[in-house]
Amino acid sequence: MKKKKTRLLFVCYGNICRSPMAEGIARKRLGPSAEVASAGIAATGGPASEEAVLVMKLIYNVDISSHIARPVGVYDIRTFDHVIAIDVSIFNHLRDIWGVPESVLYGWDIEDPLGMGYDAYKETARKIERRLDQFMAAHGLDG
Fold first, then answer.
1. What is the pLDDT of residue 3?
2. Would the N or C end of the chain have less CB density within 10 A of its end CB?
3. Looking at residue 79, what DSSP letter applies?
4. Rounded to the nearest 10 degrees, how much is the dihedral formed by the CA atoms of 38, 123, 132, 101?
5. What residues are paired with 25 via a beta bridge?
6. Are 10 and 23 in contact (CB under 8 A)?
7. Residue 74: pLDDT above 90?
């Protein structure tokens, strides 16, 4: 019997910095064992930020240059095993406005690097990677 793929959704504000980086890192780490997506609570389309694309390419060898920001509403949130809010305000929004049950909702503490330059994005990506390692270990996810 084929094992069901774990479905992860990373959510930030605009879906142009943090959650696309988290999606890229998680896809690389989890490979075909998971379905990974990202979205923003206020996403209005548009590409990932230049710094996010650059950090992902140079540090992780992951290409997110074709990423287009997606609002949370394009997904049926109930189909995800884990919904990861990139910060506390996103966690509260997903719980209170979208009704995501706390049994599948996780809150991280990743600050938004928008407008802060390459080094801030690099540190943000490293924080995401550390949190992902912890998350994978806690949930028995292979990577």
1. 66
2. N
3. G
4. -50
5. none
6. yes
7. yes
